Amino acid sequence: MNQERSAIEKVRLSGGEVDSSLTPCPNESRFDDLMEGFSDWFSSILIKETRQAVKSRQFIWTYILQLVLVASWTAIGFGTLGNQLGEGLLTGYFIILGFPLALIIPFSAYRSLSREFEDGTIKLISITTMKPRQIVLGKLGSALIQLTMYLAVIAPCISFTYLLQGISIWNIMSCLSICVGGSIFLTILGLFLAGSFRSRSLGVGVSVVFVLVLGLVYFGWILFVIVSGITDLLILSSEEYFIFSGILFSFSSTALILLASVIAQISFPSDNRSTWVRIMMLLQQTLFFAWVFHILSEEAYRNHVPTILLMWVGHYWLLMGFLLCGESSKLSRRVRRNFPSTLPSRLFLSLFMPGAGRGFLFALANIWSAFLIILILAIYEKPLFDWSWLPHSQRPSSRLASFSWLEEFHSMFICMGFVTWFLSLVFLLNRCILSRVCGHLEPGYGPVLSLVSGTAIFAFITVFAAIISGVFIEPMASAVASSFNWYEMSFAPIVGTQWSIFFIVFGIQAVIITGWAIMLASEDFLMGPIATPERVLIESKPVKINALPVGESIDEIFGELPSKTTGDGTA
Question: What is the largest CA-CA distance in the chain?
Answer without folding.
Answer: 119
